[in-house]
Amino acid sequence: MSEETPRPDPAPSHEHVHVDIPDDELPEDLRPTDDNPLAKGLPPGEGVPDLLEAGKHATEDDEDDQAAERQA
Q1: Rounded to an integer, what distance in angstroms lies between the CA atom of residue 16 and that of residue 42?
Q2: For 69, what's the count of Cα atoms within 13 Å in the CB-facing half-sphere?
Q3: Tens place of pLDDT for every residue, the chain, 72 residues?
Q4: What is the pLDDT of residue 13?
Q5: Across the strands, what pairs with 36?
Q6: Residue 67, pLDDT score
Q7: Between the CA of residue 35 and those of 7, 22, 30, 46, what are the distances in Å?
Q8: How far apart are CA 67 and CA 64, in angstroms?
Q9: Contact, 23 vs 32, CB < 8 A?
Q10: Tell me, what's the pLDDT at 48?
Q11: What's the distance, CA 32 to chain centroid?
Q12: What is the pLDDT of residue 72?
């Protein structure tokens, strides 16, 4: 009986691999529906940079919006 020397695992790859999974193969709680709008894809023409640049900064809150609406 011969013993084989274990080989170390290859170094992990740091490359991003994109995998598409059809909605019907996702678990039901991850499928895009009106109850789960975050699972829906981005609207056509909108990308991640658009999401990062839009919205409120950490120092803003809803009270700022309500005060601005009352003044308008």
Answers
A1: 20
A2: 5
A3: 556 666 766 666 667 777 788 888 989 888 888 888 777 877 788 777 776 777 777 777 766 556 656 665
A4: 65
A5: 33
A6: 60
A7: 49, 19, 10, 21
A8: 5
A9: yes
A10: 78
A11: 13
A12: 56
Give 31: exposed, middle or buried? Use CB within 10 Å, 0-12, 13-18, 19+: middle
Q: In the structure encoding, which two tokens stand for residue 25, read together?
A: 């193969």
36 three-class SS: strand
Which residue has 């529906």 as its token pair?
33
Task: Give dist(CA 21, CA 18) in Å, integer.
Answer: 10
Could you tell me the two tokens for 71? Answer: 């003044």
- Dig out the tokens for 70 from the structure: 């009352």
Distance, in Å, from the CA atom of 30 to the CA atom of 36, rounded to the nearest integer, reads 8
Q: What separation in angstroms does the CA of 3 have from each of 6, 7?
A: 9, 12
Backbone angles phi, psi at 55, to 5 degrees: 95, -170
